[in-house]
Amino acid sequence: MKGHRIPYSADEMAWLEANRTLPISEYAAGFNQTFSRDVAAANLHALRKRKGWKTGRTGKFAKGQEPANKGVPCAPGVGGRHPNAQRTQFKKGHGRSGVALKLYQPIGTERLSKEGYIQRKIHDGLPLQSRWRGVHMIRWEAINGPIPKGQCLKALDGDRTNTDPANWRLVSRSLLPALNGGRHKKRPSYDGAAPELKPTLLVLAEVEDRSRKLRRKEAA
Questions:
Q1: For residue 19, is it within any domain?
Q2: Which residues are registered as beta bridge partners of 120?
Q3: Which three-class secondary structure state does DSSP give residue 133?
Q4: Residue 140 CB partners (closer than 8 Å, separation 6+)
């Protein structure tokens, strides 16, 4: 009965522990036949887990182990295979199907990211996160070259959808916390500040960043 633990005798428990490595279907069939019981395989599987009895099987192929059906052709109606098996097989020249095909967006497609940047799809390869790149970065790099390591682009007007290269300035990533208002938010964030305050906030963040780096250099 659901919610009630099934009782087992000492002899039954001894058999269950001794035969714990059997596949669950054989485990249940052997137990029920030996003791004239009618216990579901799921209940015996749960018992093994509660007892911490290991079967020695991980569900993974070990190194050098080959699947039993390696090299066996999958033809409809052969070997008991379902006649629809080939319908879901990969077909040469068709890399996408189903949901993947419906969701596919061609190279050149643009979208708005969660962070508010306009992104453009630049390739279909891997890794997945490299398929999309900020349009402001693409346009800025076309004029100025690759963005150096440790630096990033900051929208001067605070509008992340403005992809005009003239609107973006190369800054150190270490400036970003200060431009977000500082650790304790004692000043307005750069993006939320009035236009006339933005230049001052940027200069202040740069001065503080240089001063901090000089102190670290002297301390070292």
A1: yes
A2: 110, 133
A3: strand
A4: 147, 153, 165, 168
Query: Which residues form the domain of 34?
Result: 10-51
pLDDT mean over 10-24: 88
Please check whether residue 3 is in contact with residue 17, taking contact to mean a CB–CB distance below 8 angstroms: no
Same domain, 46 and 123: no
Same domain membership, residue 115 and residue 41:
no
Is 71 contained in some domain? no
Say which CATH number the domain at 189 has. Answer: 3.90.75
Alpha helices in the chain (DSSP H): 10-18, 24-35, 41-51, 98-103, 135-144, 176-179, 198-219
Contact 154, 139 (CB under 8 A): no
- 37 and 129 within one domain: no
pTM of the model: 0.56
pLDDT tens profile 94-141 = 567 778 888 899 999 999 999 999 999 999 999 988 999 999 999 999
Alpha carbon distances (Å) from 129 to 119, 126, 143, 148: 12, 8, 24, 19
Euclidean distance between the first and final Cα of the chain, in Å? Answer: 70
Q: What is the pLDDT of residue 41?
A: 85
